[in-house]
Amino acid sequence: MAPTFEAGRAELRQRFFEFILDRETSRLLGPGGEVRLRPQAFRLLEVLLESAPKILTQNELIDRVWGVVHLSPASVKQAISELRLALGDDPARPRLIETVHRRGYRFIAPLEPIPQSASTAEPSAEPARSDKVAAPTPRPGIFRRSLAAAILLFGLAGIGGFSLLGGSLPWQETLPAVAAPRPDAAPDADRRKVPGVAPGALLDQAFVLQSQGKTDEARRVYERAIPVFREIGDRNREAKALNNLACLLDQEADFVGVARLLVRSLRIKREIGDLQGTALTLVNLGNVLRERGDVLRARSHFEEAIEISRRLGDAHATALALRGLSRLDAREGRFDEGRAALTQALDLSRQAGDAQGMAQAALARGDLERKARRTQPARAAYRAALTLFERLNAHDAAAQARKALAELGA
Question: Which stretches of 94-234 are DSSP H helices?
């Protein structure tokens, strides 16, 4: 029997095209295995499926996904973009999530409930029907405390705007690969520069290899693609390829290479006027420099990132930079300044409805108080972080908070 819509149903497991949503285990399975989503993105997908094919307004989504009153509609658009990216859904030709102009969003794919007795095997690894792929699971490297995770979300203001990929702590995160634009969107002039190959296809190819863990092959493609983008003047793609290559070098513990690539990416973002990307790359570099002990340059990077993000009204990026600055303050023993930065970061995350940011701020506060030898405030902060991470089903981050509490003898 052909799959049909089942509006309002909350089946424990449902199939749509090559994906399976498993509510019981809070997992989304695709052709290549589990598709990692932030807890809010997973909840957004759940809500869309529960209501399919009904149109949900932004206010309805805010209420059912975030449960907060004061949340910018831009946060909904960003979460939809993140979900589309993970699912490989093209907003111009959607097969899963449709934007209904001035009304909201709806899930349009046919849904097939999977009986409880059915096997929980993952979908077969048949080719995906989309020309985009899900973002790879970040792999921790020796510099995982250095890089704030950044992933390109379609629909953000500016060119190549970045946003934090939630689910792990800023100081634990690496730079995940950034999905390339559609290769068929490359200008004809681009195609003529590389006979038989659209430059965008190089970035797609490298991204697929990186998502499959074929790091050596992905690195070779990135190294081939970067000079091509430079030659044709495609600064946006060049910056993305530099960031993705930085991810690979991070995995290989090549600190010098990571820093050099991020500096080049930052220079390009400045040149093309990408303020949002500039701010978040400054945070990444600030974290790298902090871990290396270059505190003066790290502080300069964080402070510039804060200034730019505040000017843009970007609460998320401002909070991210403030958290980085607080860790630098803690490193230097400037505990009062670090507390003030974290208080600001927490307030911004709370106003934006960013539970991940709130949890990360609480964890950073615990680390700061622990370094200041204030055991009770450290315990309170770690417990707050643990509660938030458990509520978000962020298991790795919760384990980090739990470990810190155990080390304090809590």
Answer: 188-193, 199-211, 215-232
Please give the tally of structural domains in the chain.
Answer: 3
The rounded Cα 180 to chain-centroid distance in angstroms is: 15
DSSP conformational letter for 279: H
User: How confident is residue 328, by pLDDT bands cut at 50, 70 and 90?
Assistant: very high
280 neighbors 302 (Cβ within 8 angstroms): no
Tokens, residue 346: 């927490």
Task: Name, in order, each residue with C-beta under 8 angstroms of 236's C-beta and a sequence gap of 6 or more.
Answer: 159, 160, 272, 274
Residue 205 in any domain: the answer is yes
**Domain around 264:** 131-273
- Do 256 and 293 form a contact (C-beta atoms < 8 A)? no
From residue 347, alpha-carbon distances to 97, 361, 384 in Å are 32, 10, 15
pLDDT at 334 over 90: yes
Residues 162, 209 within the same domain? yes
CB 258 within 8 A of CB 249: yes
Supply the mean pLDDT for the chain.
Answer: 74
User: Which residues have C-beta within 8 Å of that of residue 246, sequence separation ≥ 6?
Assistant: 147, 175, 257, 258, 261, 262, 265
Residue 19 belongs to domain with CATH number = 1.10.10.10
Q: Are residues 328 and 381 in the same domain?
A: yes
Tokens read off for 377: 């405030």
Q: Hey, how many other C-beta atoms are within 10 angstroms of the C-beta on 93? A: 8
- Mean pLDDT across the stretch 141-157? 31
- Tell me the mean pLDDT in the region 191-208: 61
266 and 148, same domain (yes or no): yes
The CA angle 330-331-332, to the nearest 5 degrees, is: 90
Residue 140 and residue 106 in one domain: no
For the whole prediction, is pTM greater than 0.70?
no
Q: Do 266 and 171 reside in the same domain of the chain?
A: yes
